[in-house]
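help with these tokens:
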Amino acid sequence: MADRGDKFPGEAPERGADEGLRERACQLHLTVITGLSGAGKSEAVATFEDMGYFCIDNLPPQMLVRVVELFALEGSRVNRVALVFDVRGGSYFSQVGEALEHLKSLGIPFRLLYLEASDEALIARYQSSRRPHPVMGPSLAESIAAERNLLQPLRARADVVIDTTGLSPRELRRRLEETLLADQLSSQLFLSLKSFGYKYGLPDDADMVLDARFLPNPYWVAELRPLSGLDAAVKDFVLGRSEAAAFLRRVAVLVRSLAPGFVSEQKRRLVLAIGCTGGRHRSVVLVEDLARRLRGDESLVISVTHRDISREG
């Protein structure tokens, strides 16, 4: 057991502490990502994020147990975590192995993913990006060799080693899904529904945009103007129109029909935006009701955002 002078803080999951916290910590899907610079860690993080993981890049190893403790707290909605440790951590990086041993001693399960590539591939990637290597050696080749040497102990203990030489970002994503995420892959599409106001511009991240301005605007009803689409009176005003119900039915059918195709093409996240003039009334009502209609579909994971609901008209 670590005492107060231990350099790895955060002892909540340890023996003698809250057993519920410890049990929840053991139920986390925890993946530690490391490997050579330029081998694809950024793409790996993007893949894990798309699978619903909470990702932290370049975490100081001393914070490892604290992070696990945080996500194991009762009420936490995070159950999938991916953490990146690499030589960018400077002097902190030398303690990664000790931090992992500390986590193991607490009985917290995790997987260690190591990404590598050939010297030729790494040199080509660095020459293309023109970014400096984090290990500053006399030459790029010597920097890569030094980093390989530093990372060898982690490579030796890795659960999964992936050589990304010759892999495109899409191919690496597929390899990660097949190797590490197969038990979590499903036919689910992560659908983000977003309301917005056209007067404030289109959402930059929208894959599909639908226009709610074919419906009467509650803004012009004096008693509804200060309200939002989350208020019952505005909902009744908008959804009381037969064309609103028809629109929602058709959009729900469209989403359900497109979802399998998006998933099969490895597009697991879709942003569907619905806009009205100011983004406070009609679009908010429609997004909320569409989410209600789709939440019973097990092939969809729904999230809702109202971008402009707090803006003044």
In short: Residues 44 and 176 are 7 Å apart (CA to CA). Residues 1-17 have pLDDT under 50 and may be disordered. DSSP finds ten helices and nine strands in the chain. The longest strand covers residues 189-197.
